[in-house]
Amino acid sequence: MRFPGLVDVHVHLRVPGTEHKEDYHTGTAAALAGGFTTLLAMPNTQPPLVTLQDWRIAQTRAQKESLCDVFLFAGASAAHIHELPTLAEHTPALKVYMDATYGPLRVQGLSTLSSIMQTWPSDKVIALHAEGESVAVGIAMAAIYRRLVHFCHVSRKNEIELIADAKARGLPVTCEVTPHHLFLTQADAARLGPLTDMRPRLASQSDVDALWQHLNSTIDCIASDHAPHTLAEKAQADPPPGIPGLESTLPLMLTAAAEGRVSYERLLELLYHNPRRIFKLPAQSDTTIEVDEKASYIFPDHPLYTKCGWSPFTGCKMTGRLISVIFKGKEIFRDGKVLPTKP
Ligand code: NCD
Ligand code: ZN
Ligand code: ZN
Ligand code: ZN
Q1: CA 41 → CA 11, 273, 275, 316, distances in Å?
Q2: By CB neighbour count within 10 A (0-12 exposed, 13-18 middle, 19+ buried), where does 22 fall?
Q3: What is the pLDDT of residue 259?
Q4: Which ligand places an atom closest to the C-alpha of 223?
Q5: Which of 299, 191, 199 lies closest to 253, judged by CA?
Q6: Which of 166, 198, 214, 152 is nearest to 8 (CA)?
Q7: Quick check: 225 and 11 in contact, CB under 8 A?
Q8: Atom of ligand 1 nearest to the CA of 240
Q9: d(Cα 105, Cα 76) in Å, to the nearest integer?
């Protein structure tokens, strides 16, 4: 079965500043090994990408060092709201963190939030890390300022139901869910320990069931929230939240399709058409992936390319295997190997 190269709208490639976790080369190798040829990377780096200058340096590096297409989000911060109009001319979207998570980018205070919401062009996406009540605040902002708002990694029944209600009332909101919130619950968190600590935290079975119920309607995108941290960091007393996901997302979703829980057509919408439409991403010519949707194996079927070197899904039985990736006319991945490219 062939698909176009997939799009992951939520990854952390850790450049600049924490390249011991991941870098553009290893992160995009992991992307290719997971069937993704376009990535949207988050700005919670060190320094965070909140100025045109820092964003530009990082985007130039991304172009040079990546094996597939990478677009960088700009980040919003109270101190740099004046930069947003120029950033908007260059970046695909803005990221706003409303709740505590990894990195320094939390936006606090209603006046800061509403001025960000009014300054960023209303027809360009603001992606929100918003949990619980923050989701309601984000929906209110979309309604009041008639602007696009995209909700990252939605994980709770009450959140997805609120977003469904907002959509039913015609508000311009979209959302993504991660495979880990579709395939893991709090029970797995207890079993896997700090390795599965992430934001939002894993939820209950009824939350997971609600996400599956909304997979054919409310949910626009599947995004990995690939958030690599090293095993040593995860073993610390106060481990950073986040788990890698670029290499397990497609196997998990293909497994769900093989089991009849979602159609292959719907997967194409969630992993390609909707991401491209929402973030207005360019088409990639002659870029396709080939999967053997019937192949069964124990994950991973290749040594992981992510620099952090681990996955919470190691040892899981998957049905559906990536065979090959053609990127802009050239085969760049086959049978578990990212192929060498000419410099
Ligand atoms: C992310 C990270 O490590 O950058 N961590 C996480 O738990 N999801 C930050 C984020 O996406 O909130
Ligand atoms: Zn500034
Ligand atoms: Zn987040
Ligand atoms: Zn994230």
Answers
A1: 5, 18, 13, 27
A2: buried
A3: 98
A4: 4
A5: 299
A6: 152
A7: yes
A8: 3
A9: 7
Tell which atom from ligand 1 comes closest to the C-alpha of 198.
7
Residues in the chain: 343
Confidence of residue 343 (pLDDT cuts 50, 70, 90): low
> Are the C-beta atoms of residues 234 and 19 closer than 8 Å to each other?
no
pLDDT digits (tens, 9 = 90+) for 307-339: 999 999 999 999 999 999 999 999 999 999 999
Residue 249 has pLDDT above 80, yes or no: yes
Question: 132: which 2 tokens?
Answer: 């619980």
In order of start, what are the domains of the chain with their CATH numbers?
A: 2-338 (3.20.20.140)
Cα of 10 from ligand 4 centre, angstroms: 6
Mean of pLDDT values over 7-35: 98
290: amino acid identity, one letter: E
Q: Tokens standing for 46?
A: 């060190």
Q: Token pair for residue 301?
A: 């079927």
In the chain, where does DSSP find H-type helix? 24-33, 52-65, 84-90, 110-119, 133-144, 157-168, 179-183, 186-192, 205-213, 231-234, 249-258, 264-268, 274-278
Task: Quickly state the pLDDT bin for 341 (edges 50, 70, 90).
Answer: confident
Q: Is 93 exposed, middle or buried (0-12, 13-18, 19+ CB in 10 A)?
A: buried
Provide residues with CB under 6 Å of ligand 1. Answer: 12, 44, 101-103, 129, 198-199, 225, 227, 241-242
- Identify the band that residue 194 occupies on the pLDDT scale cut at 50, 70 and 90: confident
What are φ and ψ of residue 338, in 5° steps?
-75, 125
State how far the Cα of 278 lies from the Cα of 38, in Å rounded to an integer: 14
d(CA 137, CA 132): 9
Residues 286, 294: Cα–Cα separation, whole Å? 25
